[in-house]
Each structure stands twice: as C-alpha cells, then as structure tokens.
Amino acid sequence: MMFKNSIGIEIAGKDLRLAVLRSRLGKLRLVQTLDVPGFVGLAQGDQVSAIVQLVTRHKLSASSVYLTLSRDQGIVRQFEFPVEVLEKLRSSVALQLETLCPWPAEEIYWDFSGDSPRKGSKSIRVTVAIIPRLVLDPWIELFRLAKLPLSGASLSSLSIAHGVGSLWKGNAPTIVLDCESGYVEGVVVQSGQLFSVTQNGDEVSHSAQSVIQRLLALSRLPSLETVRLIVCGSEGQSIELAARVALPIENAKADSSDKFGAIASSLNSLRKSGFETNLIPSALRYRRSQAPLIPAYVLLVLTAILGLLLAMREPYQLTGYASTIDSEIQRIAPVAREVSKQQSELNKLSERYRALSAGFKSRDYNLEALRELTRTLPPTAWLTNYSYQDGSVTISGLADSASELQKLLEDTALFKEVQFTSSVTRDAKGKDHFTIKANIEVPR
C-alpha cells in the first residue's frame, strides 16, 4: 500500500498513550502523539468515553490499530530450532507451549516470529509471545465499543524490540528503559537477541540503574558507552542518563522518544522485523475494506503498462547489456575460483574451531548451577530433587508460585531456556508442585 496510517496504543502503568504514524511510499511521518493519564483506573464506561473523545476531537482514522500491553501481562521467550523444521515451524512451536507457560492451550493466545536463517546456519532463533485470553479479550471488546477496533496486539518488550529493529538497521545494541510510576521495564536488543527485565519500586532512578546493570550482565555488554539508550515513559524525564535519541521519523520532535512505546506499537503494522507478533487471532482482527483503493490500484497498473511500453522502444539495449555482462563474467571468473578455494580453507578452520569450542563447553558447571540456585530461589521454595547432566539442570519441588520461579531463573545470567517439563499442580496447602529444566548458559 502506497499510503497507510497506523495508530499505536500503549497501556503502561496507569496511562494510555497513543501515536499516529503515516507511511507514504516507504517514508514514515509522525502525525501526532496523545495520552490519557490515569486511564487504567477508570470504569469501563469512562474508558470508552475517553477513547471516543480522542477519536472525535482529533479526527483519528487509520487502516490499523495496534495495542501494546505491559510485559508482565504475558510471557515472552526466545529459543532456537534446527533449521530443518523451518517448513513446520508453527506446529513445532505449538508442541512447546505446554512447557513455556502454566496455562492450558485453550485459555491462551500466542504467536511467534523469527528471522530468516542465514546461509549455512544450522538453527533459527524464534521469539514466542503468550497471553491469557482473560487478559486480552476485555481490551478487544473495549476498543470495539469505542469504535476503534484492534487489528493487532503485542507485549511491550516485543513491541519495543520491533520498533528498534524497524528504525535502526544493523547489530548495534540498543537499551530501552520504560520508566513508569512504580516500576521500570528495560529491554536490550542486540543481533536478533532480546533480553528484558522489570523492577518494581517507587525510586525510579534507583530502579533504572539496577535494570541497566542487569541488562548489561545478561547481554554481556561492557558499559553504556557502546549502547544506544532510549528512555521513555511517564517518569522518563526524571532520568538523566543520556541525551534524548532522535527518532529517524519525519516530524519527530526532540522529545518524541518519550513516547517510544506508543510509536513502536504503531510500527507493528508498517514495518517488518524479526520481532513481529500479533496476539489477536486472525478471525478477531479488524480489517478495513480495500474497495476505496481500487481507483489507485487501477492507476498504478496503467502506469506500469505505460512504463513497459516505453521500455520496449529500445530493445537493442538489452543485447548490448547482455554482451557486457558476459565479458564481465569472463573477466572475474579467475577471481571467483580463488575466492571459492579460500572459502573451502575457511570452512576447515571453522570445523576445528567448533571442535575446540565444544570441548570447552563440555566442562562441568554443576557447582555454578547449585550456587546460582541457592542465590536465586526464594526462601519459600523447597527442592525435592536436583539433577545435572550434559549442561542441563532439572529441579523439582514446591513453591508459592511456580511461574515466578521460572521468571527468576530466566532472568539470571547462568540459566537459559527455562521450561516446565510437566504441568504445574497445586496441593491442598496452596503450594505449586513443579518440575523445571534449564540449560546452562556457557560463557563465551
């Protein structure tokens, strides 16, 4: 589509923030940003009225409306699959849902995203988002009543990662701090990897510093000097960590990064990245009729036909181009053969490196795992079984909240791919019986 408007809505803390972006021939323009302080605390009728007033007063209209909810409303996980399952990736992810979340499959909405595997890669990194239906369904109904039906929804950490990947190309690490009243959420995006941390507390500045240190440890970044830092949220102006980052969007002012969450949400329907997810099922997504665009499509087709006719006026140019290409191919053929030979030698060296790396990774991390479990698990958690084998730790026991244990272990620098190996059950005393498996994150 040559012209497209998108509305991004972010629910963060107690506020609603809204951003309107326009895509014109691939160029982005920020139309406006709006907010409704204290929106979450309003009754449903007042929430509907507030949205209707925004739509009417500012004459909001868009082909898509995308909602972003806070990360703690659902689950976000990253893991890798063998590249051989690429054609059946969705069914492969579906088989893992039981180990990724404590809710039954029929009570959740989920989606996943992943970059296309590079040539020669043996695995593909997949990002999975899960949210209970009881959380998302009321928001779908609310915006339907407000005459602003939703086309999509995502969780904040994924939406922010998509915004970063959409606006800035390359592998430069980026940290985004969403500073709200009562908590700070931090997200780091680096080379297709996503790490997120949330810390509650009224001292926003202290929470922000703590979140940054945890993100640097998780992503193994040395310091903030090599990182693009974006601070947003209702309390973002109170953090003086760095100067505001200019957004590469037309009409974006110096303080537009303060509303980065809403802007990133609107980018979900305008740009592509390796973090695209839409938690609203296809049958429930709002789609605007394309009938008014038929004249534009007809004009585009006629223009293409006219261009083709003009190109056919000088067919002899194609013959000249073909002759030039053949001579260039013959000229660079010896260089190409030499490059191929060097590539073969490089592959042999790579195999030796992988063998050495595998030997290093096979060391026993049993003591490190026990020490990390002792430090991380809360006093209310009891372990009844512990086992370590081939770089994986399996623990069983009782806890007040099994999902909380999973998140605590996931946030450590030692464990990765923390999963439930069986369904969580609760006994008569209110304790969760769990069995969790985690892989050891081998330092590089």
What is the overall silhouette? globular
Oligomeric grouping of the chains: single chain
Give the CA-CA distance, first to last residue.
45 Å
Largest sheet: 5 strands, mixed
Rounded to an integer in angstroms, the radius of gyration calculated over CA atoms is: 25 Å
Helix content: 25-40%
Order of helices and strands: EEEHEEHEEHEHEEEHEHHHHEEHEEE
**Which strand order does the major sheet show?**
3-2-1-4-8
Mean pLDDT: 86
What does this protein structure show overall?
The protein is of the alpha+beta class and 444 residues long. It folds into two domains: 3-291, Nucleotidyltransferase, domain 5; 366-440, Gyrase A, domain 2 (2-Layer Sandwich). It is built from ten helices and 17 strands. The protein has a five-stranded mixed sheet. Strands 13, 14, 15, 16 and 17 form a five-stranded antiparallel sheet that branches. It has helices at 44-58, 89-100, 133-145, 156-167, 204-219, 260-267, 294-311, 316-361, 366-376, 402-410; strands at residues 3-12, 15-24, 27-36, 64-69, 75-82, 108-114, 123-132, 152-155, 174-180, 183-190, 193-200, 228-232, 382-389, 392-399, 415-420, 425-426, 432-440.
